[in-house]
Amino acid sequence: MNCPMNKTILSLTLSTIFLLFGCGDKEQAQTAGSFKQHIRSTFIETAAEKCVENAPQQNGLPKDKIRQVCACAADKLADSVSAEDLPDILAGNINPKLADKISTATLVCLKETRRSAIQTPTTK
User: Fold this and answer.
1) Domain extents for the chain?
2) What does DSSP assign to residue 59?
3) Percent of the chain at pLDDT exceeding 90
4) pLDDT score, position 1
5) What residues contact residue 29 under an 8 Å CB cut-off, 6+ apart?
6) Pair 34, 45: CB distance under 8 Å
7) Is 93 helix (H, G, I), strand (E, B) or coil?
8) Helix (H, G, I), strand (E, B) or coil at 38
9) Which of 16-20, 76-80, 83-87 has the lowest mean pLDDT?
């Protein structure tokens, strides 16, 4: 599968390895933290985009709410997936455990989005 996220993660991994060998402990920790944050943000961005692309067309939600739910779910999923899950996610292999994580994150975000829509009065 030719996925831009795969290439990004690979290039970042190699770059980080080379940087870590030339750094002291403090610099290594900063570089590793920066690397993890970049992977996390890339994962969230890519997952949210795929979610929006794959959302059912007739779901009753406006496009902006779909984006909101997808961004929320991707963020929550980034907090719940492990490094072991990443290769499966990148390959598009969603096992039942991972599917449960995705469903849980999406349902929580959908409820949050609907609750905020009900609590926020619309003005004309």
Assistant:
1) 4-119
2) S
3) 15
4) 47
5) none
6) no
7) coil
8) helix
9) 16-20
Name the pLDDT band for 88 (thresholds 50, 70, 90): confident
Q: How far apart are CA 36 and CA 22, in angstroms?
A: 18
Question: Are the beta carbons of 76 and 105 closer than 8 angstroms?
Answer: yes
CB 63 within 8 A of CB 33: no
> 104 versus 56: which is more confidently predicted?
104
How far separated are the first and last CA of the chain, in Å rounded? 48
Q: Angle at Cα 67 formed by Cα 70 and Cα 92, nearest 5°?
A: 40
Quick one: how far is CA 118 from the chain centroid? 26
pLDDT at 36: 77
Q: In 1-124, where do the E strands start and end?
A: none
Report the share of the chain in percent with pLDDT over 70: 66
Residue with tokens 């349902």: 107
Q: What is the Cα gyration radius of the chain?
A: 18
DSSP 95: -
Distance, CA of 63 to CA of 65 (rounded, Å): 5
